[in-house]
Amino acid sequence: MRKVNVGLIGFGTVGSGVAEALKAKRGYIKSRYNLDINLIKICDKDIISKRKVKVDSSLLTKNAYDIIDNPAVDIVIELIGGIEKAKEFILAALKKKKHVVTANKALLSIAKDELFQVAEKNGVQLHFEASVCSGIPIIKALREGLAANRIQSIYGIVNGTCNYILSEMDEKAIDFATALKQAQEKGYAESDPSLDIKGHDSAHKLAILASLCFGIDVKPKDIYTEGITDISSADIKYASGFGYAVKLLAIAKKMERELEVRVHPTLVPRNYPLASVSSNFNGVLIESDIVGETFFYGQGSGAKPTASAVISDIIDISNDIVNKKLEKFPIIVYDKQVDKIKPKKDFYCSYYIRFSAIDKPGVLASISKILADHSISIASVSQKVRSKQKVVPIIMLTHKAKELSVAEALEKIDALDAIRRKSVVIRSERSRI
Ligand SMILES: NC(=O)c1ccc[n+]([C@@H]2O[C@H](COP(=O)([O-])OP(=O)(O)OC[C@H]3O[C@@H](n4cnc5c(N)ncnc54)[C@H](OP(=O)(O)O)[C@@H]3O)[C@@H](O)[C@H]2O)c1
Fold first, then answer.
1. Are residues 236 and 371 located together in one domain of the fold?
2. How many Å separate Cα 343 from the centre of its chain?
């Protein structure tokens, strides 16, 4: 039996989950893979507080270099999160020719190039399954299961916090602030939830997925990112009336030689698989050329689901160590399929628009004319409330149109006398998903 020694840096939520699962599954991994995964050192700033899992105190250290510089360690698991220190530790471990497993999407999304180059130069592997949708083995599916395909598009619900909030707003007709408070009470949202609710966490994950699939290095700054903070329960209700759920989608799609990458609230038809992903679950729909659509669903966060992904990476690397076939493990695995990232003005999708207009004859005609002048055609219209000379919502769904045309049309419509508030716009992906 081959013994593989691992050292863990970061003994927080995920780190404790990994230590617990490694302890519980050690016998199972031995019998199934003939591998003895041996956790020999754990580092954290705090080695006093009790954790969910009991470990021998001799394993604990406050100094990450007790792991990185330890010749007995084969694999370093980085689970401290953040950027500077995590990058320092990962680079140091790779340069010491140790394989690394990380769940750090924030770091990978901005520094993947550098990290993978250093891994390759040192002949070691850097695995990152837990960084996207933790419990869903999406990286493995893209690298291996879909290897013969060319990926055309990715539509993902990749942030459990946002999905929980939007699902609760939908199911219980509550407002954003109430749903966020509820998410925090249940442990689905951080005390500072901004990274999640402003869409940045989804952009980090999309940067990793899109780089993997389309052969170019996508960074979070390349991704148009809009969070869910402005979504109202009224819009969720109106969208529902048209047969749509509102989801925060991370979208990457190839349009000829250009890549559209965007994260924003999106109307999704209720009868599509992504609409049925509720609570804090994640779901990713991939369109590729041979298999067509594949859909992945599961827990995208939490100690156990994330530990499941981290341990899968440890087993993969361990098997490679044993079989002496440590091949290059790059972040970009598909051939270069696009030359550039499409600017926002050229996005091409359908739109939900809510106008706040005075209810008087001719308003609808004025709005429709401006839309038509900008080549935007209307798919459905609804005016739920009628109240003469009062402000009422007029809701329209458009057919596919160019983002710039919609922006220019709305500027003109919002300047009309009859329009009393800035119009609300939510993109829709109804015809491709
Ligand atoms: N939680 C999830 O569900 C989940 C899912 C997928 C991916 N991830 C990723 O997994 C990583 C860890 O997340 P987590 O939720 O487990 O975070 P966490 O609970 O905050 O745990 C991180 C631990 O590392 C410690 N730490 C920070 N800097 C350190 C340093 N320089 N040296 C030693 N220890 C240090 C922290 O101590 P202090 O608290 O004292 O700073 C904390 O105990 C992150 O990259 C995250 O994005 C998390």
1. no
2. 21
